[in-house]
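User: Before I run my own analysis I want an independent prediction to cross-check against. Here's the chain; please return only the structure tokens and, at the end, one sentence I can use as a sanity check.
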Amino acid sequence: MESLSHSRYDCKYHVVFVPKFRKKALFGKIREYLKGVFHELARQKGCGIVSGHIALDHVHMCISIPPKYAVSEVIVT
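Assistant: Structure tokens:
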């Protein structure tokens, strides 16, 4: 359980990113780069990546997002 100033929460969401046409392009250096980018973006919003998996044509992530942010706000920005 995590907490804000007046609440405790446990909000986790399963998010899947898919490249256009499910192009099999997520390997090698691109995979390592994306891993760092996803963690940095989550940290900037005060979120955390609980677990994740980068396949050749999609990315699965379980993200813990504070209730003060909408899921779409974290994913789109």
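Sanity check: The mean pLDDT is 90.
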